[in-house]
Write a structure and sequence with these properties.
With 205 residues, the protein is α/β, with parallel strands linked by helices. The chain is 26% helix and 26% strand.
Length: 205
């Protein structure tokens, strides 16, 4: 279960609505399911002041003694969020991101001279968590470096409470629940609508 607060959730949902990040239509999700709503958090980060505000709100739900050395995000969706979080945490906290290779099935890896040192504490940051698959793929990078996962942080938890990592807390600014359909049972498909595939999952960096 994500750690959040009602006041923060209300403000962040308002920011997402104002930014046009909450979309209505016919969408093919990364899970393969269809939905008539989608959260495109990239719209929030078009305005640095909105992204910065979201990151500052994250600080209010973190424990007073929370400490991390690195904020690590999966490319592409989590990159701007991770940067804003590291900036909000201040001090010497570094922001970095992991990327997949150019072939289907490639795992996330640290490139561009990014490195995590043994003993460091790493906060894993993703803009929207649905199944949690991408952000969980970063855990072996952290532990393989001899570092520790300090927690998980998202703008939006779309998992319906299903994403609940056992070894570190999960902080989310807001939780959103959208109705989903299997493709063969999708009423929008039955009406002749074609699903749009949003997001960046199919892109390679």
């Amino acid at each position: 279960m994500a750690i959040t607060s009602e006041a923060v959730a209300r403000e962040v949902t308002g920011l997402l609505e104002h930014a046009g990040a909450l979309r209505t239509g016919h969408f093919l999700l990364s899970s393969g399911l269809h939905s008539d709503r989608y959260c495109q958090c990239s719209a929030l980060f078009e305005r640095p002041d909105w992204g910065g505000r979201a990151a500052s709100l994250l600080r209010t739900i973190l424990p007073a003694d929370f400490r991390c050395d690195v904020v690590l995000s999966p490319a592409l969706g989590g990159v701007l969020w991770g940067y804003d979080v590291a900036r909000a945490l201040g001090g010497e906290v570094r922001s970095m991101f992991a990327e997949r290779g150019g072939s289907p099935g490639d795992r996330f890896a640290l490139r561009r001279s990014f490195s995590i040192a043994p003993g460091q504490r790493v906060l894993l940051a993703e803009d929207v968590v649905t199944t949690g698959g991408s952000i969980l793929e970063l855990v072996p990078l952290v532990r393989g470096a001899g570092a520790a996962v300090a927690g998980f942080a998202a703008v939006v938890d779309r998992s319906g409470g299903a994403f609940s990592p056992p070894d570190a807390p999960f902080y989310a600014l807001a939780s959103l629940s959208f109705q989903t359909f299997r493709p063969e049972a999708c009423p929008m498909c039955a009406a002749g609508s074609r699903a749009e595939k949003p997001g960046s999952r199919n892109l390679r960096v």
